[in-house]
Structure formats: structure tokens, C-alpha cells
Amino acid sequence: MKALSTYFNDLFILEDQNFWFRSRNCLIAWTVQKYFPQIRNFLEIGCGTGYVLSGIQKKFPQITLNGTDIFVSGLDFASQRLDNVQFFQMDARKIPFDNEFDVIGIFDVLEHIPEDELVLSEVFRSVIKGGGILITVPQHPFMWSITDEFACHIRRYTEKELKVKVERAGFKVERITSFVSLLFPLMLMSRLRSKSQNEPFNPIGELKVTPILNKSLECILSFERLFIKAGVSFPFGGSLLLVGRKV
User: Running DSSP on this structure, what letter comes out for residue 230?
Assistant: First the structure.
């Protein structure tokens, strides 16, 4: 548990500066505004240190926010980061709500859970009619690497697999697109290089990049986001974004 607390502490320090976390937050906030403009409340499953919730709170200060995680260590950091947010420990396979939330978000969490379809069905029961689900997950099984193993991932998704599972839970998929697409060649080279090296893996070290490179990568992802906002759905990328609605 000490190692877990140290990991959350490292994330807590790095997230606000790292290009990937910052860019994902911008994409999530835009998606909420685009597809659920009348949102009144939001639940994040697996909120970790609360970084995504902090982005949503800045964009939508009027809505009621709730954050859950199975690890209390993460919730401790989240409660330090945010005020006026209700946090509680919860197993996503047993959500204790019915028709309660306008939107439920699951951001880079579903890939950790063997019973991902059970979680999706629990989310469907917990959102109101007309409400929905937002999901981000790592994409492309062929991109599997030591990073996935260290993160305790069960899988990386294909677009078809994620869409089928969400629809099977009862949702209508309104948008699905890859993101971190313009950086995909760099990601692929990084994965191939890591497979050929025998050096000890440092997951936090992967998040530490020079300020100039960090800013450059963030600018590229900002440019990519313009295409997504214009309606372009990328077929490849490091991650997938899905919007589903309960109709």
C-alpha cells in the first residue's frame, strides 16, 4: 500500500504539467459540453487523484460532481485537490444507484477490470434516460507493452470491441474516435524500443519529458483536437474516446 500511495503522489504532482493528461482533460471537457450541454450531475468511476474532475469543475462549476475509486489512497489525494465534490470508495461492478446520474465517466479504467461488460451494464442502470457514458481506453492490442503490464491492464481495445460491448450494455453509441493519433508513430517507435531493451521500467519516468518537448507535444494534440471537434473520427491512435447515450 505504501508503493501505491507513492504512485498516486507522483501522479498528483505530474498530471497538471504533463501534455497527455492536460490534452485528455481538454478533450473530455469539450465532449461533455458537446454531447451533454444540459448536464446537472456527473459521476467519475476510478477518479484516482481527481485530475479529470478538476478539469470538469473548472469548465462546469455549476454541476454536482461525484468521484469514486476502489483505492482509498487515490481518494485522499482527490479530496486535497477538490472542494465541493463527494468522494466515496466503490467497486464499479456493484454500483449502488439506479437512474441517478446525467453522465458517468470511465477514463482509462475499464481496461483494468476483467468484468468490463458487467461494469457497463451497471453504468447503464445508474444513468438517467437521455443521459450517457463517456469512456477513454487504450487502443490497439498490438501496442501491448511493459507499460500495460506494469499498469495491470487486462486488455487494450479495438474500436469494434469497445463499440459492441457498450451497445450490448444498452447504450446507443453517438461518437467513437481515436485520439493521440498524430503522435501515434512516436508511440509505436517507443513501444518497439522498449521491447528491445532490458533496462528496468520506470512508469513515472515515461511521464517526465523536457518542458520544450512537453509543450510541443501538447500543441500537436491541440491541433488534433480541432479535427475531432470538426467531426473527424480518427481510425488509429493511442487511445479511444466513446460517447454513449441511454435512449
Answer: T
The reported pTM is 0.94
Sign of CA dihedral 93, 150, 78, 22: negative
- C-alpha 48/C-alpha 60 separation (Å) is 20
**Residue pLDDT, tens place only, 166-191:** 999 999 999 999 999 999 998 888 77
* pLDDT, tens digit, 9 for 90 and up, residues 93-142: 999 999 999 999 999 999 999 999 999 999 999 999 999 999 999 999 99
Q: What is the CATH number of domain 2-245?
A: 3.40.50.150
- Domain ranges in the chain are 2-245
Q: Taking Cα atoms as reference points, which of 93, 77, 96 lies closest to residue 85?
A: 77
Burial 170-188 (b: 16+ CB within 10 A, else e): ebebebbbbbbbbbbeebe
| Amino acid of residue 160 | K
Three cell numbers at 38? Answer: 444540459
Helix (H, G, I), strand (E, B) or coil at 231: coil
